[in-house]
Amino acid sequence: MMVRVLVHLILTVLLTETFTSLSSAGLDPASLCPPQWLPFGPRCFAFYPVWSSWSTANSTCSQTGGNLVSLHIPEERQFMGQLVNMDTRVWLGGYQAQQNGSWLWSDNSTFGISGWTNQGKGNTTEDRVCMEMDPKSGELHSAPCGELRFYICSIKASSSATVFPSRRKLVEPGLVPGVSLLDVVWGYSNWLAEEILRSSTFLRGLRSGRLTERCYTGFIQQELLYLHRVSSTVEALISRLQEADDMRSLLLDALKHYRSRNQSLPPPLPQQWLHLSLGSFHSVVLEEPVYWLVALSARACLRSFLGRELRLDKLRPGYQPVPGSVAHSLYQEWSKDNLKDVAWTHSFTSVLEEYRNKTDVFKAIGIFREHMLNQKSFYKAVDCDVEDDG
Predict the structure, then answer these.
(1) CA torsion angle for 194, 195, 196, 201 (degrees, to 10)?
(2) Are β-strands 90-96 and 149-156 bridged in parallel, bridged antiparallel, or unpaired?
(3) What's CA 191's distance to the chain center, in Å?
(4) pTM above 0.85, yes or no
(5) Which of 82, 109, 141, 204 could form a disulfide with 389 if both were Cys (CB 3.0 to 4.6 A apart)?
(6) Cα separation, 15 vs 41, whole angstroms
(7) Distance in angstroms (rounded) separating the CA atoms of residues 95 and 368
């Protein structure tokens, strides 16, 4: 206990000294870093609550002009724990060289850590190991580089306060009065919903009345994999919102709904569609919260659309589930679940309208489309047999 208190005091002193020296020079410490990044010592740090392999995380960090974080003093490890502030382990920049088993940092700085626990050794590509950190305990471990973790990036702080403006300049939205933001972003992606409806063998089986329980279970399990992972990202995003408002309430609603379905998860097989879908959150987690809602609204809007299109009264005669059949029971279960997304769509519309004048519409359109494309990949991945959908 005394050691933890001492480390905390040292960290506080270091932070105070850093902020004081910068302030005396007429600089705001935050202005030396990109928006949503935090300064510590000579570097800026950003926590990405996005499930990624080590190589994908390192590539994303490189695109920002930095690297996965390297550690050089004990206080940095303590700061990483405060930055993450959750139980999920995160990737750091350490990786093991396959030639001689030595450990290196991805930013090419000197690796000076010794005696850290659970050091593994990889001899093949499949066994390659990288460094992860438990943010609560500060312990470092090795893990297969292909596994999915959240991660932390770092870049050098700028010596010029003008390089990273503290506030983003938003484009004037120019929305037509009476037209909601969600209507606009949906209008640019509704063709994707039509494609999903036409091409999905799962939806074809649902509409034809020949959906089997095996196919339905496969669909639910695949979606559970996605919702289980996304719920952790949503939890991390919620922790960044200090005030209780409609946006935080809607995010909490989403988290509750996602987790209520995280039961009987299938094995976490490495599936390309899942990696792409989870990776799409790279572009939003450091943005303003309104864009988080835009990203999450894509799935709700799609499900609401499918619910309208697959109502029994809209299906052609001869292509309806027979009452009392397995297919009919599965259809009823799917329809009941979709009703929640209809209500969600109204909630998303209401909350997004509160922030429409602070939103770059073009950015929102791009984010929504990206997540709709991921939904298309998901529905394509759930492939039912031909005899299931007639």
Answers:
(1) 120
(2) parallel
(3) 24
(4) no
(5) 204
(6) 8
(7) 35
